[in-house]
Specification:
Elements (H helix, E strand, L loop, with lengths): L2 H10 L5 E4 L5 H13 L3 E5 L14 H11 L2 E2 L5 E6 L6 E7 L9 E2 L2 E6 L2 E4 L2 H12 L19 H13 L12 H7 L3 E2 L2 E2 L1 H7 L10 E7 L7 E8 L2 H15 L2 E6 L2 E6 L3 H14 L9 E5 L3 E7 L8 H4 L10 H9 L9 H11 L6 E4 L3 E7 L1 E2 L2 E2 L22 H9 L7 H8 L4 H14 L3 E3 L12 E3 L1 H8 L1
Helix pairs in contact: 5-11, 7-11, 8-9, 8-15, 9-12, 13-15
InterPro entries: Fic-like_C (IPR049514), RecG_C_sf (IPR038475), Schlafen_AlbA_2_dom (IPR007421), Schlafen_AlbA_2_dom_sf (IPR038461)
Keywords: ATP-binding, Nucleotide-binding
Pfam family, one: SLFN_AlbA_2
Length: about 475
């Protein structure tokens, strides 16, 4: 913001959406006003301007910025406010601008436990009746996931993903078999995604294909060198529906975490340095239970030499502290519509068992239980590789690199070459190939064997235009046969 814009604002005088404060010495009163703006149509507070519009400015130090940030953090629920510091011409002083944008889906807001509203140019305490009404809208049928997007059409959704979710639900007994024969609109209505011909936001999060209106459907992934964020080795972003983001997350883990194998009975089990089931459960919870209302939010995965951190916007239920979450508990999903669809399609294994699964899986392989942290704005799950400073299951020379085959095959892993060897005699389904390889973890097979082979052009699909064809089979390409001959 330029100083000329501040002069233009001051000329409008204090109003329903504009407040002047002489300095940040009036932080409490100004935060009440910002809270009122958030409960209304938004607004701006200018610090360094007297009530009559005279600009006096104020000095800005690190302690000033900290005081503002700490005051904003007392506004509940968490909200991101835009703050600008504009220097007054020919002066060492600044005008501070705090902009509170309209937050329709997250009202009511409270500062220090009390809600406020704006009447003309006056800030006042919100009546209890109005507070209860806004609270009901936020937590009930008017929650963000249930809000209708009139521009979202059924053609904007991935039909294959919808039918895939239905098939998984039928296969695992969570949906009746008749569901697969029903029309897409009927399925969407039963999932709670379509009402009176209109799709809600949950439909886009679950099955969308175009995310121009949903920038928050984002996954950020990074592999850092060492134990800090100073230098990264790999940095990726993925945008898409929950199923796409879950696939991208697991692929990133398989790329950067070491893999070891052992024979267990008739099958070979391949284990990541952090159990696959724990990581998958963590990502599902992050994608399902996060706060989606803020367009700039995302889920992030950070892999370090000594730990993995998965972070999402949101917080734990107020009446379920972390200690209680570690035990068996009733599920209180932030997004019940999204959670219900994921449960029926068996992405969510069971209600209220996600954290317990993560803890049990880590203990099973001798790793410390994951840590669960929240500051009221974000939830972070930390998986550690080591216990008492001793590294576990990692390759010493490069803790996140999967062992490669000899240099004469510089682009192919041992797993890909094994797959090539299996396909030498014909074409087979995923189930058949996994049987030949003595594997029982389908996701591991897809990410370590099949997907890399397809990307390298060594393997092709029988139905390339329909990757999820129920009779899909795989065969060697000419390039794959040359590798086989070698």
């Amino acid at each position: 913001m330029e100083y000329q814009e501040i002069e233009a604002l001051i000329a409008l005088k204090e109003s329903k959406n504009l407040e002047f404060k002489e300095s940040t010495g009036q932080l409490d009163r100004s935060m009440e006003t910002l809270c009122a703006f958030l409960n209304g149509d938004g607004g701006i507070v200018l610090y360094g301007v007297k009530d009559n519009g005279n600009v006096v400015g104020q000095e800005v130090s690190d302690s000033t910025k900290r005081a503002i940030a700490e005051a904003i953090n007392r506004i509940e629920p968490f909200v991101s406010l835009e703050i600008n510091y504009v220097r007054i011409p020919n002066s060492d002083k600044f005008v501070i601008i705090v902009n509170a944008e309209k937050q329709r889906f997250m009202r009511p807001f409270a500062y220090k436990g009390r809600a406020y509203l704006r009447i003309e140019s006056t800030t006042t305490v919100m009546p209890q009746e109005q507070y209860n009404h806004l609270l009901m809208q936020r937590g009930g049928k008017y929650g963000w996931e249930a809000m209708v997007n009139p521009d979202l059409k059924i053609s904007d959704l991935d039909e294959n993903a919808i039918l895939g979710a239905v098939r998984e639900g039928i296969r695992n007994g969570r949906l009746p078999e008749v569901t697969i024969r029903e029309e897409i609109p009927t399925i969407l209505r039963k999932f709670g995604l379509l009402r009176d011909g209109n799709l809600n936001n949950a439909a886009a999060v679950l099955f969308g294909v175009d995310f121009y209106d949903y920038p928050q459907c984002l996954l950020r992934m990074a592999r850092f060198k060492g134990t800090t964020k100073e230098e990264f080795i790999d940095n990726q972003r993925a945008q898409g529906n929950i199923y796409i983001l879950l696939d991208a997350a697991m692929a990133f883990f398989f790329k950067h975490l070491s893999l070891s194998g052992k024979i267990n009975g008739l099958y070979r089990e391949e284990e990541l340095s952090i159990p696959y089931k724990a990581l998958r459960e963590c990502c599902i919870n992050s994608l399902c239970h996060r706060s989606y209302h803020h367009p700039g939010s995302s889920v992030s995965i950070a892999i370090y030499d000594d730990r993995v951190e998965v972070t999402n916007t949101g917080t734990f239920p107020a009446d379920l502290p972390v200690e209680r979450l570690m035990q068996e508990h009733d599920s209180k999903p932030q997004n019940p519509i999204i959670a219900n669809v994921l449960y029926k399609s068996k992405i969510l294994e069971s209600w209220g068992r996600g954290i317990g699964t993560m803890v049990d899986e880590c203990k099973r392989v001798g790793l410390p239980a994951p840590e669960f942290k929240t500051d009221g704005n974000f939830v972070t799950v930390v998986f550690k590789y080591n216990c008492d400073g001793v590294n576990l299951q990692l390759v010493n020379s490069n803790p996140t690199s999967n062992q490669q085959v000899p240099n004469k095959y510089p682009t192919s892993t041992q797993q890909v070459l094994e797959l090539v060897g299996i396909l030498k005699d014909g074409e087979y389904s995923v189930r058949e190939i996994m049987s030949f390889l003595m594997l029982k973890d389908r996701v591991n097979f897809l990410y370590k064997y099949l997907t890399p082979a397809l990307e390298e052009g060594l393997v092709s699909m029988k139905y390339p235009d329909n990757p999820k064809h129920p009779k899909q089979k795989y065969m060697l390409t000419e390039k794959g046969r040359k590798i086989l001959e070698k």
